Amino acid sequence: MGEATVTKRERTRDSLLVAVQELLLDPEVTVLSVPQIVERAGVAQGTFYNYFQSLGEAIEAVGVVALLEHARVLQTVIEGAADHTEVVARSAKQTLMMSSCQPHAGRLLFESGVPIDLLISGMRAHLLQDIAVGVDAGVFTVSDFQVVATIYVGTVVGASMDLYRGRLELDAIPAVVTHLLRLLGVNARKAERLAAVPQEFAPWRPFPLTLLGLE
C-alpha cells in the first residue's frame, strides 16, 4: 500500500494497533484497557469502537499483524530452497527460533492474550498447503493430512512455547525439525541432514509493527 493511497481511516486503525502493541509489550502495564489504548493513540475513546467491537478483538487484530509479518519473513527464508522438503525445514527452523530470538514476538503470541487458536489455525492452513504440494511432488508420504497437521502444529506450538520459556535450548531445534520431517514421511537420513543445516534467524521489522508496512 503506497503512502498516497493510505486513507485516514487506515491510518487511525493502524495507530490503534500500534498503541495496543506498545502497551502489551510494556512490562509495567499489567492490565490493558481501552482508555489506555486511545490515550496512547491520541484519539477519542469512541473512535476505538469504530474499528473494534471489543478489547479482545483489538488484541486478536494485533495477532493477525504478527502472523502476517511472520509470513512475510518466511518468504525470504525459503528463497532458493532445492525442493519442498527444504522449504518446510527452513520454515520450521525460522518458526521455532522466532519466540526466543524475537522475544517481542514470543510475548505477543504467548503472553498478551492473543488467542492461541489464531496461531494454530494460521499454521495449520499453511501446512496443509505445504503437505499437498510435497505429496504431489513426491517428497512427502502422508496418508492422513488432517491427523499429521494436528500433530505437526501441536509439536511446533509446544516446542515454541518451551523455547520461549527456556525449557528448551536453541540447540534442540534440529531434533524437533527432524521429528517434523519424519512425520511427513521424509526418510531419516534426509530429515537429519536438512535439520542439521545451519540457519540464521531472519529478524522481523522493529516493533511496534505497522499494518501499513505489510501491504
Task: Walk me through the structure.
This protein has helices at 8-24, 34-41, 45-48, 55-77, 84-101, 103-111, 116-137, 145-165, 173-183, 188-196. The protein is mainly alpha-helical and 215 residues long. The chain has one domain (3-201, 209-214): Tetracycline Repressor, domain 2, CATH 1.10.357.10. It is elongated and about 60 Å long. The mean pLDDT is 93. Keywords: DNA-binding. InterPro entries: Homeodomain-like_sf, HTH_TetR, TetR_C_40. GO terms for molecular function: DNA binding.
Record keyword descriptors for this entry.
single chain, 215 residues, mainly alpha, Tetracycline Repressor, domain 2, DNA binding, Homeodomain-like_sf
Short description:
The protein is an all-alpha fold and about 220 residues long.
Question: What is the helix fraction of residues, given as a range?
Answer: 55-70%
Low-confidence stretches: none
Helix-strand pattern: HHHHHHHHHH
Strand content: under 5%
Secondary structural class: mainly alpha
Number of strands: 0
| CATH architectural category | Orthogonal Bundle
The major β-sheet equals: none
Shape: elongated
Note the total helix count.
10
State the CATH superfamily name.
Answer: Tetracycline Repressor, domain 2
The first-level CATH class name: Mainly Alpha
Write the layout of secondary structure elements.
Elements lengths: L7 H17 L9 H8 L3 H4 L6 H23 L6 H18 L1 H9 L4 H22 L7 H21 L7 H11 L4 H9 L19
Helix pairs in contact: 1-2, 1-4, 5-6, 5-8, 5-9, 7-8, 9-10
